Amino acid sequence: MLQYNGEDHNLVERKNRKDLSIRLGQFFDYYLKDGKPAKWIKDGLPATEKGKDWGLGL
């Protein structure tokens, strides 16, 4: 589950839209194309690290 604080269902902030776009690409690459899992897929991301470490593994 992805949650963006202060955002409704439709994301308004550009950084959140970009983050979601990257994560969707990583999700589909891993689950549909047998790609390597991103850090956030493999290990998760604790709420306490939200905004500090995005876990994207770029």
How would you describe the overall organization of this protein?
The chain has helices spanning 14-33, 39-42. It has a domain at 14-42. The protein is globular. The two termini are 20 Å apart. The chain is an all-alpha fold. Helix content is 41%, strand content 0%. The protein contains two helices and no strands.
Write a brief structural summary.
This protein has 58 residues and is an all-alpha fold. Helix content is 41%, strand content 0%.
Overview features:
globular, mainly alpha, 58 residues, 2 helices
Mean pLDDT: 85
Give the % helix.
Answer: 40-55%
Along the chain, the helix and strand elements come as HH
**Hey, roughly how much beta strand do the residues contain?**
under 5%
Unreliable spans are none
Instruction: Give the overall form.
Output: globular
- The span between the termini is 20 Å
- Count of helical stretches: 2
Structural class: mainly alpha
Number of strands: 0
Cα gyration radius (Å)? 12 Å
Largest sheet: none
